[in-house]
């Protein structure tokens, strides 16, 4: 038997639950009090009182340790393997447009903690200040900005993006613990400021290099 009723009505169904127990029928309760969450439920007992925990992020300590160990191992290996490519990438970026080789930007990580994300620069210098000029090219709804044909991207930048080589420096962020290999993309503070309350759930887990 599955009881799919509002929580406030469960107390009225005690007789039904008792009758099912007498007949050896298993009773399940459909819990969906928070429509914008997809939690993992944990049932504990506190002085004989069942307690239901709504866990929206992983809580297995051993699994989290193993994930962090994998992050560090892969990030360190990736940085070492990519070392010979850095000089070529740096020269190509410098020749394509003036400005620094690396692009650094404040992002929001776990629990809104800010960190400096590092990428190979793929846009012209000062591109952030020109976002209003290309706002009409945004293909995303809400606070996220994405323009597939962004004119601020340099020719070399397009090649770096197509091959995902511009993301390689983020392995340093993974090594530092700012990010993980897999997780939601880290948003900029301006996006987070426009989040609805339920959208802030993505900040309850560590951002990732790939989603």
Task: Describe how the helices and strands are arranged.
Layout (H helix, E strand, L loop, with lengths): L1 E2 L10 H10 L4 E2 L10 E7 L2 E7 L5 H22 L3 H11 L5 E7 L5 E7 L34 H9 L6 H7 L3 E3 L6 H4 L15 E3 L1
Parallel strand pairs: 1-2, 7-8
Antiparallel strand pairs: 3-4, 5-6
Helix pairs in contact: 2-5
The strand line-up of the biggest sheet is 1-2
What ranges have pLDDT less than 50 throughout 5 or more consecutive residues? none
N-to-C series of helices and strands: EHEEEHHEEHHEHE
Main sheet?
2 strands, parallel
Question: What does this 3D model show about the protein?
Answer:
- With 211 residues, this protein is an alpha/beta fold.
- The chain is 30% helix and 18% strand.
- It has 6 helices and 8 strands, in the order E-H-E-E-E-H-H-E-E-H-H-E-H-E.
- The strands form 4 sheets. The protein has a two-stranded parallel sheet. Strands 3-4 form a two-stranded antiparallel sheet.
- Helix 2 runs antiparallel to helix 5.
- The radius of gyration is 24 Å and the shape is elongated.
- The protein starts with a strand and ends with a strand.
- The mean pLDDT is 86.
Defining traits:
two-stranded parallel ribbon; two-stranded antiparallel ribbon; elongated; single chain; alpha/beta; 211 residues; 6 helices
